């Protein structure tokens, strides 16, 4: 692996890190750090490399998300986190869109500054327990009532794992609304190119000098590569051995975990 | 219209009628008959034409569905109704499938004779209030736990209208599970060819001597035409003027309602 990366890791000036499945495993209990990841984040910061966390997390405000990670021992601040909700807020403002929100209770404060009267679009996130029959029908009615329905989805994940089992992710509910309204959602978050670009802009590093490290072969690795970045897949989180035979996406390298990735990258510098 | 149909309506020996939107408009209050439809059903029966009701109704057993329609004044019996649940039961038995059910409470008795232990497939119907976050996650976990997920969907409608507003239909939830599990559902009910064929077999009438009358341009009209039947669209129920410009499906004729269809057909005989 080190040999495979030697050719290009030397030029690296910044790292984008996925959070869930790379830094920690999430769960109703708050989750647990992945072995070596707390120290790996510290070593990145000490090395002088630029660092940005690039997550599709939409079950909490960035403030609460960061507090949780700090509680697990991570050196992380709100400004270092690129997440779908703030990106969606920028898009809503730019286009004069007033959302009907179908999101997690704890995410609502991210939209505090946004005009939500007389909605002209629907924003869907991983609403979890808020994905009730009544709430889905309500979001559907708002959409189907528009001359040209606008559906904005905070990510398009299929499912994720929590300590009590697998859960349908926002992508499944996005598909339900897409089909019912014969509309295609605009995805904010990974793997959208614009989302990676805004994370790179936060670091001030061009794509060819950045590496994305994630556990999702499509959203993290494929998305980052389409932006011109190198991308590593960790063998933690939602990684499955079958990912290594993915028909379309091939990471620039595999690493067992974030700690190993940081070892190799820092050796090249 | 009468002129347009004169060429072929004379050969007709049997009629397939959609129910919701053709016989009556459904609703939480039980629904109301569409003007002229009660009498139209009587006239069909008096004419000697064969008659079968072909519905995607999955919110009640056929027994209760028929009772409701009899209460509205319709001359209808259980044996005259072709519905997805009994068709699904035949398919489950043929293939030795044991379903996990995600259906309406009132539909469950249709599956009384079916072995549901240790499920090896998921059957989804219009579960309405049973489409909870927990129930969807449970159906998803059963599916994703299979080596080769089998999803059977009782119809694939996008939405329907009740007296208190539009509701997402089974097709939307089917799409959510399809996406999450990367699987394609097998649809039992209209527009599946096999479903129309079993309705025709009940009447003992070949497709070229039968007419389907429905309000759904795709499921009723398109589905029946692909089976070799003629098909009329009524301008009641979920009919919308834009249906008349549908890019793929063109009914053999439009009629304002069932009563008018029966007038024209009986005139030709």
TrEMBL record, chains A, B:
Cofactor: Mg(2+)
Catalysed reaction, written as an equation: diphosphate + H2O = 2 phosphate + H(+)
Keywords: Cytoplasm, Hydrolase, Magnesium, Metal-binding, Nucleus
Gene3D superfamilies named among the record's database cross-references: HAD superfamily/HAD-like
MF (Gene Ontology): inorganic diphosphate phosphatase activity; metal ion binding; phosphatase activity
Entry superkingdom: Eukaryota
Cellular localization per UniProt: Cytoplasm; Nucleus
CDD domains, A to Z: HAD_PPase
The keyword Oxidoreductase is annotated on this UniProt entry: no
EC number annotated for this UniProt entry: 3.6.1.1
Top-level EC class: hydrolase
GO cellular component: cytosol; nucleus
Pfam families: Hydrolase_6 (PF13344), Hydrolase_like (PF13242)
Function text: Phosphatase that hydrolyzes imidodiphosphate, 3-phosphohistidine and 6-phospholysine. Has broad substrate specificity and can also hydrolyze inorganic diphosphate, but with lower efficiency.
Similarity-based family: Belongs to the HAD-like hydrolase superfamily.
Protein name: Phospholysine phosphohistidine inorganic pyrophosphate phosphatase
């Amino acid at each position: 692996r080190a040999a495979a990366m030697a050719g290009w890791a030397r030029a690296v000036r910044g790292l984008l890190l996925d959070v869930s499945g790379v830094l920690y495993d999430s769960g109703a209990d708050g989750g647990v750090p992945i072995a070596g990841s707390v120290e790996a984040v510290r070593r990145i910061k000490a090395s002088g490399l630029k660092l940005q966390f690039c997550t599709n997390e939409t079950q909490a405000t960035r403030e609460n998300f960061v507090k949780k990670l700090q509680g697990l021992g991570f050196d992380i601040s709100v400004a270092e986190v690129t997440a779908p909700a703030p990106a969606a807020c920028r898009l809503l403002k730019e286009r004069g869109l007033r959302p009907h929100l179908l999101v997690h209770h704890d995410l609502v404060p991210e939209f505090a500054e946004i005009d939500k009267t007389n909605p002209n679009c629907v924003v869907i996130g991983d609403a979890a327990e808020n994905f009730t029959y009544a709430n889905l029908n309500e979001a559907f009615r708002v959409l189907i009532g528009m001359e040209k329905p606008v559906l904005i989805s905070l990510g398009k994940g299929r499912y994720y794992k929590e300590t009590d089992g697998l859960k349908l992710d926002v992508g499944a509910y996005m598909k339900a609304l897409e089909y019912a309204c014969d509309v295609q959602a605009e995805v904010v978050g990974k793997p959208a190119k614009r989302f990676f670009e805004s994370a790179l802009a936060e670091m001030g590093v061009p794509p060819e000098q950045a590496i994305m490290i994630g556990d999702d072969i499509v959203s993290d690795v494929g998305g980052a590569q389409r932006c011109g970045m190198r991308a590593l897949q960790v063998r933690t989180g939602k990684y499955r051995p079958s990912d290594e035979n993915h028909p379309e996406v091939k990471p620039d390298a595999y690493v067992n975990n974030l700690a190993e990735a940081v070892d190799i990258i820092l050796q090249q510098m």
